């Protein structure tokens, strides 16, 4: 009836099994996160388009080389005037443009004018006349490349 101090397993190691280290990586949570991020980017990417939506006229002229972000002036179909994406009144157009161009390069700053092809011609002519009268000399009209001609 005596008990041995070493136990009946012959050394104490043979009967007890040690838990093995798991060497596999569970990628399911990472895949779930990546799918959610992909859906977020797919939904938000179309909303990142910058600019006022216009139906531009088409020409065969080549595009100009530009090394920095252009200053865009837009006239939409309703006659609203935009500097980049910000709507301005025609009375505020020249003071705001001068403030922007003074910070960027003065009156030699190139202004890209975009006008919807169904926009009021009088509004477009009035804007161009004000730009010319204010001393802006580098005005470029933006068009799309003509298709199928």
Report on the structure:
- The chain has 149 residues and is an alpha/beta fold.
- It has a domain at 58-145: Nucleotidyltransferase, domain 5, CATH 3.30.420.
- Helix content is 28%, strand content 15%.
- The protein contains 3 helices and 7 strands; from the N terminus they run αββββαβαββ.
- The chain has helices spanning 28-44, 93-104, 121-133, and strands at residues 58-59, 71-75, 81-83, 86-88, 111-115, 139-141, 144-145.
- The strands form 2 sheets. A 5-stranded mixed sheet has the order 4-3-2-5-6, covered by helices on one side. It has a two-stranded parallel sheet with strand order 1-7.
- A hairpin with a 2-residue loop joins strand 3 (81-83) and strand 4.
- The chain is elongated and about 100 Å long.
- The termini are far apart.
- The model has no long low-confidence stretch (mean pLDDT 77).
Please give the radius of gyration in angstroms. 34 Å
Q: Report the average pLDDT across residues.
A: 77
The biggest beta sheet, please? Answer: 5 strands, mixed
Q: How much beta, percentage-wise?
A: 15-25%
Level-1 CATH class name of the domain at 58-145: Alpha Beta
Structural class: alpha/beta
Shape-level CATH architecture of the domain at 58-145: 2-Layer Sandwich
Question: How many helices?
Answer: 3
Question: What characteristic shape results from the CA principal axes?
Answer: elongated
Number of strands: 7
Please name the CATH topology of the domain at 58-145: Nucleotidyltransferase, domain 5
User: Approximately how much helix is present in the residues?
Assistant: 25-40%
Distance between the amino and carboxyl termini: 108 Å
Q: Which parts are unreliable, with pLDDT below 50 for 5 consecutive residues or more?
A: none
């Amino acid at each position: 009836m005596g008990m041995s101090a070493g136990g009946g397993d012959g050394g104490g190691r043979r009967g007890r099994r040690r838990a093995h280290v798991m060497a596999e990586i569970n990628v399911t949570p990472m895949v779930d996160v990546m799918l959610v991020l992909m859906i977020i980017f797919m939904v938000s990417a179309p909303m990142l388009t910058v600019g006022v939506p216009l139906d531009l006229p088409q020409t065969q002229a080549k595009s100009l080389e530009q090394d920095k972000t252009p200053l865009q002036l837009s006239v939409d179909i309703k006659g609203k005037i935009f500097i980049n994406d910000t709507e301005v009144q025609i009375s505020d157009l020249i003071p705001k443009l001068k403030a922007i161009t003074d910070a960027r390069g003065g009156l030699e700053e190139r202004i890209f004018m975009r006008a919807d092809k169904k926009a009021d011609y009088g509004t477009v002519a009035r804007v161009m006349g004000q730009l010319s009268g204010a001393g802006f000399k580098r005005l470029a009209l933006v068009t799309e490349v003509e298709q199928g001609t």
